[in-house]
């Protein structure tokens, strides 16, 4: 493939490995963005749209998008802030995966209990910028003199090992389940930020003609993300209980009510957030709903 074959195509950056990669491939499949990636090739043409996918490290994507070298990208909010590209990129969608927290961690058994105890000591991290900002404001607040300020040291990965190797008094790293942190004998004493994966575009697009395609891809991905957040709930309920049922499952606009042959009863069909569905089913059963059924969505536009 040469640069000519990319001419006029929308360039869409996808994390090439790591925690976000698989989820991004699922999103692309859900949005019917079809491609075949040849082994070891990081650029590939999409078959059914005027798009080329560019597989890049998640941490490089904010600057590629911010500088307009690619038009669209998926990465973590943490890496956008770490690369100081938030002024140059526009976040168009939260994607609901890659959720974790950037936390200050110290050995569970040690003397350091608070970030104030850690201030002035050695902190190892892959997030030099965010950790630097966090400890600068802490050191300022504690009025630490120049020679007593917190020392931030960069490592590229396996940050959790730094304390047991004697290289650090504390670390700043990502925590999702907390398994890695606990396995290293660490615990969190502060949260620097919460993050999730987002779709971003350049704040000053180089190719305005691609805007309609950017809109199309964005709304397709939004549909896949929304489909993952909702289920369809169907149940039968006595007409007299309809008011109570609608209070439990109000739907996005309103529940769909269909008549049944038995005039005392109606069928209800309604979208419910996945996180609320178990409670909603309990409540519906309590007011006498029957035949409550839940259906997953493959895709939707809401
Ligand atoms: N444990 C996790 N749970 C959820 N999201 C995570 C987790 N770890 C990282 N992320 C998100 O994924 C982004 C990329 O991190 P990841 O560690 O996958 O990339 P990487 O370091 O390039 O890959 P690898 O760790 O395979 O070398 C992070 O910036 C963060 O937004
Ligand atoms: O709280 P948990 O669910 O355990 O997840 C947190 C871990 O996930 C990430 O590491 P990753 O697996 O990407 O390895 P890395 O440190 O080599 O990047 C992150 O850097 C933590 O180490
Ligand atoms: Mg990693």
Automatic annotation (TrEMBL):
Residues 58-219 form the ATP phosphoribosyltransferase catalytic domain. It catalyses: 1-(5-phospho-beta-D-ribosyl)-ATP + diphosphate = 5-phospho-alpha-D-ribose 1-diphosphate + ATP. Coiled coil: none annotated. Pathway: Amino-acid biosynthesis; L-histidine biosynthesis; L-histidine from 5-phospho-alpha-D-ribose 1-diphosphate: step 1/9. It is found in: Cytoplasm. InterPro entries: ATP-PRT_HisG_long, ATP_PRibTrfase_cat, ATP_PRibTrfase_CS, ATP_PRibTrfase_HisG, HisG_C, N-reg_PII-like_a/b, N-reg_PII/ATP_PRibTrfase_C. Keywords: Amino-acid biosynthesis, ATP-binding, Cytoplasm, Glycosyltransferase, Histidine biosynthesis, Nucleotide-binding, Transferase. GO terms for biological process: L-histidine biosynthetic process. Its EC number is 2.4.2.17. Residues 227-299 form the Histidine biosynthesis HisG C-terminal domain. Signal peptide: none annotated. The keyword Transmembrane helix does not apply. Its main location: cytoplasm. One of its GO terms (molecular function) is ATP binding. It holds the Pfam family HisG_C. One of its GO terms (cellular component) is cytoplasm. Belongs to the ATP phosphoribosyltransferase family. This is ATP phosphoribosyltransferase.
């Amino acid at each position: 493939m040469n640069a000519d074959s990319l001419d006029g195509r929308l360039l869409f950056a996808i994390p090439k490995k790591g925690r976000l990669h698989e989820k991004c491939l699922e999103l692309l499949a859900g949005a019917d963005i079809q491609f075949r990636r040849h082994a070891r090739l990081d650029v590939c043409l999409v078959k059914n749209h005027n798009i080329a996918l560019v597989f890049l490290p998640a941490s490089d994507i904010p600057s590629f998008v911010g500088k307009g070298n690619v038009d669209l990208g998926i990465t973590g909010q943490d890496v956008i802030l770490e690369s100081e590209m938030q002024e140059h990129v526009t976040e168009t969608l939260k994607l609901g995966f890659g959720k974790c927290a950037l936390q200050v961690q110290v050995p569970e058994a040690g003397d350091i209990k608070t970030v104030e105890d850690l201030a002035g000591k050695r902190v190892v991290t892959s997030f030099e910028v965010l950790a630097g900002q966090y400890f600068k404001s802490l050191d300022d607040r504690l009025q630490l003199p120049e020679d007593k300020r917190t020392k931030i040291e960069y490592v590229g990965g396996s940050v959790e090992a730094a304390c047991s190797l004697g290289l650090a008094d504390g670390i700043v790293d990502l925590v999702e389940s907390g398994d890695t942190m606990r396995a290293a004998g660490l615990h969190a004493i502060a949260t620097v930020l919460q993050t999730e994966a987002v779709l971003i575009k350049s704040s000053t697009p180089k190719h305005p003609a691609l805007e309609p395609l950017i809109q199309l891809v964005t709304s397709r991905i939004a549909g896949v993300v929304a489909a993952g957040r909702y289920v369809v709930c169907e149940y039968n309920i006595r007409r007299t209980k309809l008011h109570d049922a609608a209070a439990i499952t109000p739907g996005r606009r309103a529940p769909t009510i269909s008549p049944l042959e038995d005039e005392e009863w109606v069928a209800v069909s309604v979208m419910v957030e996945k996180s609320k569905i178990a409670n909603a089913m309990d409540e519906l059963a309590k007011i006498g709903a029957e035949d409550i059924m839940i259906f997953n969505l493959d895709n939707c536009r809401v």
